[in-house]
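Notebook B, p. 112. Complex prediction, attempt 2.
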Amino acid sequence: MMKLWFAPNTCARVTLTALEEIGEPYDTALIAFMAGEHRKPEFLAVNPSGKVPALETSYGTLVQNGAILEYLAETHPDARLLPAAGDAFERAAIRAELYRCSADLHPIVTRFVIPQMMTANADGAPHIREQARAMMEFQLAPVAARLAASEWYFGTEWSVLDAYIAWIWFRLTGSGFDADSFPSIRDHYARAMARPSAQAALTREAEAEKELDARGLLFRPPFAKGDRK
Ligand SMILES: N[C@@H](CCC(=O)N[C@@H](CS)C(=O)NCC(=O)O)C(=O)O
């Protein structure tokens, strides 16, 4: 059985959603960031970068959300996690959209949500956050245009890109990014989160949050509004 190392509210939500779409049983292992578990030897042996998600499979462990999602899509074609690609170019073009989320958008999310982690100078954090907001607005414009033109990121069929964009939107708006600034992404978020797989992922996260809370280890981003949806 595959095992996902994860933490609630992180980008591992996208992987959780993909596993729920597949519908096969899987195991989870919770990382408590507030206890520094992501820097402890047990987890560094799983992912030396100390980041979630990490997926243990019968062939070995995979890290990097994009790679994990591609692997799950390829090994579970019936789940239609990514559009079918006719040739190498199409495959690369789909992968580029995954990388847009993991390599372009995600790092900006981190700077917006926890800017204080990017500077030793506490006075610098608001500036980093404002820069991140402007960068994010620029990067989200083409995403918003796509979602204004079609129901899902790749057209008429849902894919894990929709879960990825929904997580990015959740993280941003949960941290004070104006939810009305991109109506097409706001509306897409509602559609994406209505899927049973997304709801099942939230249920897993809620259980994990309960466990962390009981240990006094629940992390809330400093600018959080309190509404986890
Ligand atoms: N490039 C990695 C980024 C993963 C990542 O940054 N995960 C965050 C949670 S959303 C994390 O584990 N952060 C802990 C850390 O960087 O120490 C991926 O796409 O999987």
